[in-house]
Amino acid sequence: MYIFRLVSSLLLAVYFTNPAYSVDVFPALDQNSNQQKMVIYSSLDVNFVQNIIKEFQQTMPNIEIEYHDLQTFDIYDKVVTESDNQQVTADFVFSSAMDLQVKLANDGYARNLPVSIAANLPTFSKWRQMVFGLTNEPAVLVYNKDWFKDKTVPKTHDEITEFLMQNSQEIFGRVATYDIERSGLGLFFLAQDQKYNNNVWPLVSAMGQAGVRLYTNSSAILQRVADGKFIMGYNILGSYAETYAKTNPGIGIIMPEDYTIITSRIGLVPRYAAQPLLGESFLRFLASEKGQSLFVEHINTLPLNVANKSTKFQYVHIGPGLVVYQDQLKRQKLIRKWNSSLEQHQ
């Protein structure tokens, strides 16, 4: 099993023993005022969010921000462990694993926030005034343009399955996706595929036949598709793919034509936050028109009004239904089905 964990670090970085964990400090802009510190746990690579943080600090120049870049499962575990031990935890939590964020709220680890905090967001993007979907991000197929220059790129999920089966020997070991046992987002995407695709298991089996490589993040896959080591990456976050393609023109991006899952990074303020008002202020900023424009500019998310116009987009609605596969029995059953489907041809 191939696992690569990317540690991004800009500004002042402090590394821990876990290679998937980095902390970046953004000093307060006003060093002479009454300074406060806000702690953020996030699965978004710091190089994607640094400009947004700097814009926020322009509105609150006395705030120092400590940004913890973590895997989605680690964010969940850290908030739960710290809260259960009555320790202070992050002031704001931002994760692409929608199900884990909803579970935190459902289990009492998130604060109830004012109704006005995200009034402009669609109803399906918030739940109980505790969790808020702040982005629209498609799950896409990425491919190496040079390899496909004389070939037809699959544009639907069934076409992906057919392509993998017909070319499995030629492309063996050159296809990648998330490791669902170690990536909360990967497990989440599989659950959504199972909801919208009656042929999802033949697709997983075809990936196994093609010797799929499994990773815990998008960046590792995108790097290998760009340099030609891999020819395809499945269910990659479109925001990462669009950003990477700007400096790596050899990467092509497809939003599947039969259905495209639209996921959202969810923000919440933990119940045991040391500075909950700061966390609330940051969430309010991200949900504002200014914050939304910054997401589009710096993270390449889909604008809310544009995304709503496409009928192929399948939006993931925020609510208790997302936590189904956090039940350990159901989760393990899904993982066993995944592994058995992959191993049929290995």
Sheet with the most strands? 8 strands, mixed
CATH domain topology of the largest domain: D-Maltodextrin-Binding Protein, domain 2
- How much β-strand is present in the residues? 15-25%
> How many independent structural domains?
2
What do we call the CATH homologous superfamily of the largest domain? Answer: Periplasmic binding protein-like II
CATH architecture of the largest domain: 3-Layer(aba) Sandwich
Summarize model confidence as the mean pLDDT.
88
What is the gyration radius calculated from CA atoms? 20 Å
Shape: globular
> Which class of secondary structure composition applies to the elements?
alpha/beta
Question: How are the strands of the biggest sheet laid out side by side?
Answer: 1-2-4-3-5-14-7-6
Stretches where pLDDT is under 50 for at least 5 consecutive residues are 1-19
Level-1 CATH class name of the largest domain = Alpha Beta
| Number of helical elements | 12
**Overall strand count:** 15
The percentage helix is 25-40%
Walk me through what this model shows.
- This protein is an alpha/beta fold.
- It folds into two domains: 12-134 and 265-313, Periplasmic binding protein-like II (D-Maltodextrin-Binding Protein, domain 2), CATH 3.40.190.10; 137-262 and 327-343, D-Maltodextrin-Binding Protein, domain 2.
- Helices cover 38% and strands 19% of the residues.
- It has twelve helices and 15 strands.
- It has helices at residues 46-59, 72-84, 98-106, 157-166, 184-196, 200-209, 218-226, 238-247, 276-287, 289-299, 304-307, 328-343; strands at residues 12-15, 22-26, 36-42, 63-69, 92-95, 126-127, 131-133, 137-144, 175-178, 213-215, 232-237, 251-254, 260-263, 266-268, 313-315.
- The strands form two sheets. It has an eight-stranded mixed β-sheet with strand order 1-2-4-3-5-14-7-6, sandwiched between helices. Strands 8, 9, 10, 11, 12, 13 and 15 form a seven-stranded mixed β-sheet that branches.
- Helix 1 (46-59) packs antiparallel against helix 10, helix 4 (157-166) runs parallel beside helix 6 (200-209) and helix 6 (200-209) crosses helix 12 (328-343).
- It is globular.
- Residues 1-19 have low confidence and may be disordered.
